[in-house]
User: Fold this.
Amino acid sequence: MAEDVVVLYRPVGQQELDLIRESGSKAFPPRLLEQPIFYPVLNEAYAVQIARDWNAKHNTPKVGYVTRFHVRAEYLQRYPVQTVGGGMHQEYWIPAEEFEEFNHNIVGKIEVIAEYRGEEA
Assistant:
């Protein structure tokens, strides 16, 4: 890529993935009222952990996906990296009211790089 970008990851469930695909894989869906922040993560291992250990066990249907996408580095400079737990648990916290601008700073398409399925009851 010619532009200076940062590779980010986002674990998602089936409903969120369906909405991403409706956008042509160019944007994440708007935040719900109970979601004041959007938190893309900085490494694939952390995204896998959430998709496999949370989404695939607690969502309906029991599936979790890991998405990978690129965001303009210049845009991300305004947000500090947050570490939540161990050293690999790093993410950005994008306030819901700034989320549309975040989507405008995605370069290229959002791609699914992994899928995890849990056991259905």
In short: The longest strand covers residues 106-117. Helices lie at 14-22, 44-58, 73-76, 99-104. The chain has four helices and seven strands.
